[in-house]
Amino acid sequence: MENDFNKEEKNGLYKAIFSRRDVRSNFISKDINTKVLTRILRAAHHAPSVGFSQPWNFILIKNHDTKKTVKESFKKEKQKAAKEIDGSKKSKYLSFKLEGILESPLNICVTYDPSKFGPFIIGKSSVPNTGLYSVCCAIQNLWLASRTEGIGVGWVSILSNDVLRKVLKIPDHIIPVAYLCLGYVYEFSSRPDLEKAKWLSRLSLDEVVFYEEWDKKQSPQWNEIKNMIKANLDYA
């Protein structure tokens, strides 16, 4: 089958991937259009899933009191996490804005249902976590679709799942995977916030690619791609 993406379409996909950001600020007071939100959710729902199990659900949240409860959980969990950090990094961590729960017009809790379609799912027996990985694929689809619509997404992972279960009435067998803050923004940062703050830097692609076996950085049959990777010849 010939490639049915033209050059402009391919560039659009790579642009969305390379310019996607974890957004915690810069939200503007503009509601997300219903048609746009439906497109984003449909993109998420078209993610790959193990055994076509589609084990995700999306809880849409606008209620201010609900968001306030989630924000309080964030504050407590952030302070708890700070106890694991020593020295100057602790104050730096505490200074970071790591959520936009109240500022964003829409929050979405993405969940994993391991019971969907029964106990046997093709492809899940040997690696049970593939169901959870499938939900993460849906989240990435949602994120990229949002970026193409000019909508920022922030994943808030500093939360208590027990609080989420209670406030969102999530059954015990359902696992909250992601709490996302969505909204239009006045700009997307050119670089990730934590990279700009010198918390961590992006690793070079050459550092994370091995050839034929773990930690093998040289192999004659892979020289061409290794040289291209080292030359950083990509969209970014």
Shape: globular
Measured distance between first and last alpha carbons: 28 Å
| Low-confidence sequence ranges | none
Specify the helix fraction band: 40-55%
- Specify the biggest β-sheet: 4 strands, antiparallel
Mean pLDDT: 95
Q: Supply the number of structural domains.
A: 2
Strand percent estimate? 5-15%
What is the CA-atom radius of gyration, in angstroms? 20 Å
What order do the SSEs take from the amino end to the carboxyl end, as H and E? Answer: HHEHHEHEHEHHH
CATH superfamily of the largest domain: NADH Oxidase
CATH class of the largest domain: Alpha Beta
At CATH level 2, the architecture of the largest domain is 3-Layer(aba) Sandwich
Number of strands: 4
Taking strands numbered 1, 2, ... along the chain, how are they ordered across the largest sheet? 1-2-4-3
User: Which secondary-structure class do the elements indicate?
Assistant: alpha+beta
How many distinct helices?
9
**What name is given to the CATH topology of the largest domain?**
NADH Oxidase
